Structure to design on (115 residues):
């Protein structure tokens, strides 16, 4: 009986996933040429991305795929400007850009797929 209880607890515990926190761009922070930063990482819904940058130098805008592909800000997009923005991922694709002129085109954008 004790063995079955232990096996049940291990099975239950192994299915629990904990949200993680990631600093976008690692030590460099939210900066140019960060578009490949998500490569090789595994994200899940509920994970938090921290965008660190100098206030007034950049921003973070949540956009749809068209906004990401075209480096444009669709009406109603959430714009973050704190310099230490913490954004929780939702399941599926999550798209972020800096909409300062030329920044997105310079690679200040990421697409993150959260399982």
């Amino acid at each position: 009986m004790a063995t079955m209880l232990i096996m049940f607890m291990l099975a239950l515990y192994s299915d629990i996933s904990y949200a993680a926190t990631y600093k976008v761009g690692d030590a460099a922070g939210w900066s140019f040429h960060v578009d490949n930063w998500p490569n090789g990482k595994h994200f899940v819904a509920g994970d938090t991305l921290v965008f660190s940058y100098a206030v007034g130098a950049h921003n973070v805008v949540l956009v749809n795929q068209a906004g990401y592909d075209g480096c444009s800000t669709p009406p109603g997009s959430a714009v973050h400007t704190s310099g230490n923005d913490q954004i929780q991922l939702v399941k599926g694709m999550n798209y972020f850009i800096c909409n300062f002129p030329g920044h997105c085109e310079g690679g200040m954008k990421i697409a993150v797929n959260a399982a």
